[in-house]
Amino acid sequence: MASKLLRAVVLGPPGSGKGTVCERIARSFGLQHLSSGQFLRESLGGGDGLGQGPGCIICVRKNVPGPKTGVTFVPFHCGACTGFPRTLGQAKALDRICELDLVISLNIPFETLKDRLSARWVHPASGRVYNMDFNPPHVQGVDDLTGEPLVQREDDRPEAVAARLRKYKDAAKPVIELYKSRGILHSFSGTETNKIWPYVYTLLSSKIPPVLSDEEN
Ligand code: G5P
Ligand code: MG
User: Fold this and answer.
1) Which of 14, 27, 177, 178 has a Cα at 20 to 30 A from 107?
2) Measuring from atom 21 of ligand 1, which residue has the nearest CA?
3) 5-58 pLDDT, tens digit each
4) Rounded to the nearest whole angstrom, what is the distance from the C-alpha of residue 37 to the centroid of ligand 2?
């Protein structure tokens, strides 16, 4: 079992680059990337909803009280998580099972988010994410590694995006305030992940030794 190195979550509105940043964190620091949204999609798509990595596990349940979905979080020993906690209730539930070392919050303008999401294509089986402007696949419409077709997420339709952004704003505010009051919140603002990334890398490097240099990502 891996020893505890770091427990971090990345918060931010839809399209803010949580997944993109977290993938880079995972590669650069040898951590596990856990995405609650990806687990939910896999679970609702017929998978067993269980993701497992060295020393960490996240379990998504379909039949829990509350809105349509719920997430149960089992302690992870080292890793970076996106999309969870998403509400104050989830933040408090997380408190009962582990103490976070670091919270990264991404602040990206609304117009930028809309543009990014309309150009996003994903490989459903792996969760790999592309963007026609930012990181296009080698061959249009096809996953680089498997050659399988890419799809657009249902919730990336413009009308769904506006509703997701509203919902996120309401739910996230108290979560962000909570972590700010604990002194573990680090906020990054901008319109480009490549400009935000070096700051995230520097912050994390002060907590754990990297396995890759900043430029290698
Ligand atoms: P998700 O899957 O967590 P969201 O809505 O929180 O969904 P999303 O849409 O996955 O977040 P992201 O991960 O923040 O966005 O962003 P990303 O995919 O990395 O980047 C977006 C796009 O921009 C990509 O195409 C990327 O390549 C591109 N990009 C990145 N940086 C740049 C850049 O600098 N420039 C450009 N041009 N492009 C860039 O959750 C989905 C749903 O599941 C439910 C909720 O309903 C949620 O809406 N859910 C939960 N429900 C209850 N509890 C929870 N804990 C839940 N978690 C999820
Ligand atoms: Mg994501």
Assistant:
1) 27
2) 15
3) 678 889 999 999 999 998 898 889 888 777 777 777 776 654 333 333 322 333
4) 7
Ligand (nearest to CA of 106): 1
pLDDT in tens, 103-129: 999 999 989 999 999 999 999 999 899
pTM value? 0.84
Tokens representing 27 are: 């590669």
**What distance in angstroms lies between residue 10's CA and the mean position of ligand 1's atoms?**
11
For residue 95, is it within any domain?
Answer: yes
Return the CATH number at 157: 3.40.50.300
What does R_g of the chain's alpha carbons equal in angstroms? Answer: 17
Strands, E assignment, 147-213: 185-189
Q: How far is the CA of 156 from the centre of ligand 2 (A)?
A: 11
Q: Specify the DSSP element, H or E, that contains 59.
A: strand 56-61
Domain, as residue range, for 110 = 5-62+76-206
Residue type for position 163: A
Lining ligand 1 with CB less than 6 A are 12, 14-20, 35-37, 40, 69, 71, 82-84, 86, 90, 116, 120, 129-131, 133-135, 155, 164, 192-194
Instruction: Tell whether 34 is covered by a domain.
Output: yes
**3-state DSSP assignment of residue 35:** strand
Decide if 154 is inside a domain: yes
Quote the number of domains for the chain. Answer: 1
> What single DSSP character describes residue 212?
S
Residue 68 domain-assigned (yes or no)? no
